[in-house]
Amino acid sequence: MFNEDFLLGGRMAEFHPVCRVGDVHEGEGKMVRVCNKLIAVFCQGGQLYAIDDMCPHMGASLSGGYVENGVVTCPWHAWRFRITDGTWADNPRIKIGSYPIRVVGDEVQVQVETTPPVRPKPQES
Hints:
The protein is mainly beta. It has a single domain (23-114), classed as Rieske [2Fe-2S] iron-sulphur domain (Rieske Iron-sulfur Protein, 3-layer Sandwich), CATH 2.102.10. The protein has no helices and eleven strands. The strands form three sheets. It has a four-stranded antiparallel beta sheet, with no helix packed on it. Strands 3-4-5-9 form a four-stranded antiparallel beta sheet, with no helix packed on it. It is globular, with a radius of gyration of 17 Å. The two termini are 32 Å apart.
């Protein structure tokens, strides 16, 4: 039983607790680490969103960017990404990762793929 987790191509996507609701402020981002990934969590209009934290242009942290009308602007060179789905606002053919997010009680959880542990093959007799 996976409890709302699911299996994709041998990888399991699980929800991971990342912070408390009060840690993410309206119109701002918060960088969190999930399964060795840096993810930016944003709050806009009372709704939470999660995308990759690293700008693909030069590696700046998007969680430190300016958020307006559902778009975060990279603080280094002004590349703009939609916080709802990671699409580059100026060239929709380019996207960064976006992640399902949920709130359980006061806990913010982000769903990220993880590789299940490798099980040893049974030895033949």
